[in-house]
Structures are given as structure tokens and as C-alpha cells.
Amino acid sequence: MLIDAHCHINSLVSDTVKPVLGKKDGYLFVDVSIDTESSLKSLGLSEKYSFICSSLGFHPLADEEFSLATIERYREFIEDNPNVVAIGEVGLDYKARLSSLEQSNIFREFIKLSLELKLPIMLHNRWHDDVIFGILDDYLSDYRNVIFHCFSEDVHFLERILAKNGNVSFSLNILRKKRKIDEALKEIPLDNLLLETDSPYMKVYGEYSTPLDIEKVYNYAARAKNVSLDEIESAVYSNAKRVFGF
Ligand SMILES: [Zn+2]
User: How much distance in Å is there from the Cα of 32 to the middle of ligand 1?
Assistant: First the structure.
């Protein structure tokens, strides 16, 4: 079973989504939303397809206006829906149109919702390390229910996550063989590892990706960590089961 812990099937165009939805066995996709519109699409997908589950979030780069009514809508989307396995992506991004304070306030609302609904947080982070860890630490004593998605930082950042037993998801960008990401991938214990494509946004060799590219991530990670494909598959499977609860 290959699990893609973070992809955006809800934003694939019809040509590329067909082969993904035609998959029956051997794959499980965590479809991630970025605003209320994509959340509704994701809910439709996870309702219809047994191999898709939803992670609903409000991306810091989303164009949609945020208000407290937005949180209420998300509560309605998520409450009592077994197809929703996480909240996110949520977090901080230095490219966002909102100020860091506005972004932090939204992020905090979603952390509170995740605690209330007992779901893990799918974290998007492009900000100063201390700010992001500071906000998380205001609410959480450890990171067992946090997924640091699309890991692109260095070993030092990884060690701060591991010190609090967080989950780290490596994406298709490992194929670019950046030294610091490679080092982090080698260092991470199998017990904290998840794998994802972040498709279609993550481009590989200049092309938009699909969740079916997840196989390349597993192959690369197995080689980098010098373990068999079976070992990586079963480690990611049991980590995903523990974090997402499916
Ligand atoms: Zn994403």
C-alpha cells in the first residue's frame, strides 16, 4: 500500500485526474484543501472514493476572506465526517498577502479546532522557525499530532521536530537531490516518516505532478535510507495509520 500523505486531487484537471481515480488497489491518497471551495470538492471525492480521504484546511496563500464564520463552516464540514482525517494545510507563509499577525490568528483558530475535533494538523510552513514552533508550543506539549509537510529544511530544524516526536512528510522535491534535504531524509527515523507528492503543485522535471508519482518518492526514500521498499512501505503505512487514524 502506497500512501500519499499530502496531495491536491481536488485541483487536478480532468485529464490528469482520470488515471488517479481509476486506481483501485494499492494506493491511499490524503487529499488536501486550501479554502472552502476546495474543501467542498475534497469532501465530494472522499465521499465517493474509498481510497481518498480529506484533510481540510485554509492555506495562508488562499485568496478567500477569513472570518470566524469560516471556522464554523469548517467545523460543520469536519464534525462527524469519518472521511476527514486531518486539518490543514494551515500555517504561515512569507509570501502571503496577510500580515504575519493575521496569518497567526487564523492558524491559531485552526489549531484550536484540531484540538477540539481531535485531528492532526497538516502544517504548511514558510516562516521563521521560532515563530512557527512558538505558536505550536502555545497549544501542544509535543508534535505527535503535527505533520510537517513537504520538508525542505535542514537537519537542525528536523531535530527540533524529532525532539517533540513530530511527523515529517518528505515530498517529490527530494528528487531534486538538494543536499540539506537529503541529509534530513537520511537522518529521520522510520517511525517519524511520511511521504507525499504535494501534486499537482510540486513540479518534477518541469512537469506538474500527480499522486501516482508517489512511487518515485518511495523508491528514492528507500535508496536514501538504505532500506528495502517493503520496509519503507510498512513504516509509512503504520505511521499514517497512527497519525490519521484510518
Ligand atoms: Zn499542499
Answer: 7
